[in-house]
Design brief:
The complex is a heterodimer of chains A (422) and B (150). Chain A is of the alpha/beta class and 422 residues long. Chain A is 38% helix and 16% strand. Chain A has helices at 20-24, 52-64, 75-95, 109-124, 143-152, 169-175, 198-206, 227-230, 255-260, 295-309, 313-332, 359-368, 381-387, 403-419, and strands spanning 33-34, 37-38, 40-41, 103-106, 130-134, 155-159, 180-186, 212-215, 234-238, 249-253, 271-274, 279-281, 337-340, 349-354, 371-372, 374-376, 392-396. The longest helix of chain A is centred in the first third of the chain and has 21 residues, at 75-95. Chain A is globular. Chain B has helices spanning 2-7, 10-17, 65-78, 83-98, 126-141; strands at residues 30-36, 41-50, 53-62, 147-148. Classes of the chains: A alpha/beta (422), B alpha+beta (150). Pyridoxal-5'-phosphate binds next to helix 4 of chain A.
Chain lengths: 422, 150
């Protein structure tokens, strides 16, 4: 039987409106009531909620597939190994890597950066060398580098930004010097929302033979990622920020780069042979995955990737950009409220301050209205120092948020101003 | 809203707007720094002592309304008190805001500090209310390391 599809009648360029209610129904946590009000969850940059598909994958693994991987010859172990390796292949596709062995399972972005800082640093950093990071890095892309720099006698140098929260590419190019051994830069800033021009930054670094690590923790939930198109050498994400479980993340490393690095941790699964005289290491990725991995987490992350893959990500992005614009406009319209981070190219993250009220007080009062936001320095103290602020309040949106969530936030901020008589 | 009204009492809002003893003492006999890394609160407490008695106390720093007001009210409460009396107040205050076993049955025994009784309904804010007290404690003990609520 032939099915004749009706011609698509919608005008070119117009898209079907995203059915957000249907998406929300798949997230059990979004059905919660908090302090008597329906939860308005605007802390997605800290961690996202999880769809039913991810929760089910975790339960199914523990109930029907639990065994150690790469070790047993029995049925369950083979089953678990296939599921774990299958998750790596899903992750490869998600990141756009050429080969699955270029994708390592790690605990999260923090461990991804630490792995590279430690292994790359021990192999390559000498006294007087430089590691170049940006002014808007999360502490997890600063501190691991500081530790290794201190150990190796190397220096941390910093790409400056402007008041909008955009990196100064001219300055960046000048900072790429003969002593620069690696660049470590965030793709999307968690406190400012800025989307950095990674492809261009990689091109400039590579022109001088310098490798680049990208912190993709906040990019993964918002943007399609293609490490080959970006050209970066390393790219790392956290599962829990992209609708997957906590405790699992990915580190992509180009095969030749990973092969050139010494191991990060020693243990089982990462060796080829061990004697007391000498150990030879397994090929990548096993070389960097010592010990029993977070099998359930990897499978759950695979389920999150499948879930995202089943959605029209372009439609999600359009919806998120609408939320970003709407939230920015509505918050900016409140007297005394200032949006921090006004880059031209942003993800749906809105940091703001309320005149005369500390961010922490803002957070407590809006929480009473069932609105969950983050307040503080967001693990980016240098960004706060740059703007001369002790802290900001931050609303971060996922595709399952709505304009009604923004309205609830704005009403809650008005309540803050009432309480403080601002 | 009633919980919120308990937390943000007029006394607290007023001390946040106009903190008392908000000054550096130069020279000071003792000083200590305190940080609340969670929210970026930071303050320094300065003391002038006369033997065991807090002759003068000042503080500086930046923080949320709860931590600023707490520091302000603390300075007013301990000025002129002996070290032991100040530590005793710290203990009672801490029990009150955490709802601990020694929590005063009637918070009014703490005088104006009773304004912070509502904090116990907000576990995330207990550290804000107690930061200045921990810092005072460190200053009295002559501790060299900055204190942190983490
Ligand atoms: C930009 C950025 N980098 C790194 C991290 C650290 O991620 P994780 O805590 O999952 O390792 C975060 C999250 O807090 C982040 O927002």
């Amino acid at each position: 039987m032939t099915i004749v599809r009706p011609p698509i009648s919608a005008a070119a360029g117009s898209r079907p409106v995203l059915d957000v209610a249907k998406l929300r129904a798949e997230f059990p946590a979004l059905q919660l009531k908090v302090r008597g009000s329906p939860l308005v969850y605007l802390d997605n940059a800290a961690t996202s909620q999880k769809p039913r598909a991810v929760l089910d994958a975790l339960t199914r693994y523990y109930e029907e597939g639990n065994a150690n991987v790469h070790r047993g010859v029995h049925y369950l172990s083979e089953h678990a190994t296939a599921a774990y390796d299958g998750a790596r292949e899903k992750a490869r596709r998600f990141l756009g890597a050429k080969e699955a062995r270029e994708v390592l399972f790690v605990r999260g972005t923090t461990e991804g950066v630490n792995l590279v800082a430690s292994s790359f640093g021990h192999a390559n950093l000498k006294r007087g060398d430089e590691v170049l990071v940006s002014a808007m890095e999360h502490h997890s892309n600063i501190v691991p580098w500081q530790l290794i720099c201190e150990e190796r006698g190397a220096r941390l140098t910093v790409i400056p930004m402007n008041r909008r929260g955009e990196l100064l590419l001219d300055e960046y190019e000048k900072l790429l010097g003969p002593r620069t051994k690696i660049v470590a830069v965030v793709h999307v800033s968690n406190s400012l929302g800025t989307i950095n021009p990674i492809r261009e930054m990689v091109r400039l670094a590579h022109a001088k033979g310098i490798p680049v690590l990208v912190d993709g923790a906040q990019a993964a939930p918002h943007l399609p990622i293609d490490v080959q198109a970006l050209g970066c050498d390393f790219y790392t994400v956290s599962g829990h920020k992209m609708f997957g479980p906590t405790g699992i993340g990915l580190l992509y490393g180009r095969a030749d780069r990973l092969e050139a690095l010494p191991p990060y941790q020693g243990g089982g699964d990462m060796i080829r042979s061990v004697t007391f005289a000498k150990t030879t290491f397994a090929p990548i990725p096993a070389k960097f995955e010592a010990g029993t991995p977070h099998i359930a987490g990897a499978i759950g992350l695979g389920a999150a990737i499948d879930y995202l893959g089943g959605l029209d990500r372009e439609a999600l992005a359009i919806h998120e950009q609408d939320l970003l614009r709407y939230a920015t406009d509505r918050l900016s319209a409140l007297p005394g409220v200032r949006v921090i981070g006004t880059a031209g190219h942003k993800a749906s993250v809105v940091s703001f301050t309320v005149e005369g009220v500390h961010a922490h007080d803002v957070g407590t009062i809006v929480d009473q209205e069932g609105v969950a936001i983050r307040t503080g320095h967001h693990c980016t103290q240098p960004v706060m120092d740059f703007f001369g602020l002790p802290a900001t309040a931050r609303a971060s949106f996922a595709f399952y948020n709505t304009r009604a969530d923004v309205d609830a936030l704005v009403a809650a901020v008005e309540k803050v101003q009432q309480v403080f008589g601002a | 809203m009633s919980d919120l009204a308990d937390l943000y009492q007029q006394t607290i809002l007023e001390h946040n707007r106009r903190p008392r003893n908000f000054k550096k003492l130069e020279p000071a006999d003792r000083s200590a720094e305190g940080d609340n890394p969670l929210c970026g609160d930071h303050l320094t407490v300065y003391l002038r002592l006369d033997d065991d008695v807090i002759k003068e106390i000042g503080f500086q720093g930046s923080g949320c309304a709860i931590s600023t007001a707490s520091a302000s009210l603390m300075t007013a409460a301990v000025a002129g008190k002996s070290k032991t009396e100040a530590e005793r107040l710290f203990h009672d205050f801490h029990e009150m805001v955490t709802g601990g076993p020694d929590a005063p049955a009637d918070p009014r025994v703490l005088g104006k500090l009773a304004a912070f009784a509502g904090v116990r309904q907000f576990p995330a804010r207990v550290k804000c209310a107690s930061l200045s007290w921990h810092t005072l404690h460190a200053a009295l003990a002559g501790a060299a390391q900055p204190v942190s609520t983490e």
